[in-house]
Amino acid sequence: MKQLGTLYFFCGKMGAGKSTKSKQLAIDKHAVLLSEDEWLSSIYPNQIASFEDYLKFSAQLKPLVKKHVQNILSVGTDVVMDFPANTQKLRKWFLDMASEVNASHQLIFLNLNNGQCLRQIAQRRIEQPERAAFDTESVFIHVTKFFEAPEASEGLNILEFSGKE
Description:
alpha/beta; Rossmann fold; five-stranded parallel sheet; 6 helices; Cell division protein ZipA; P-loop_NTPase
């Protein structure tokens, strides 16, 4: 029986460092990195002007991404997904994606408080000015309302980080 890949995915509030950590993990694990932001901006250029637009296009992307990731896992390659797993429903999507092909998974939970996230968002606005329109405190407050911390009952392999690790 051939070795399957492992699916790595992230949970954390906006600004927690999911993209930064995912890039580093992909390097460390010699894994394929898939970034939702990159896919969305390539497939739907200049079409995402609001959180509602993001939700709509993200949902359209998911069936294609799921099959693609399952194919990669099936040939024994690890996949790091820079897609948020910030609600129970989204985490179930990741879990199903791995379990349907009998691959293992790891949820990395970046458990930072609102103040830590807002400081990192402020820093990101400086480093990536093209994100300044979306990287605001009001957007953070809006999207954080939807955030659900992972729970043991979800059946996930959770690795939790807090603060500056």
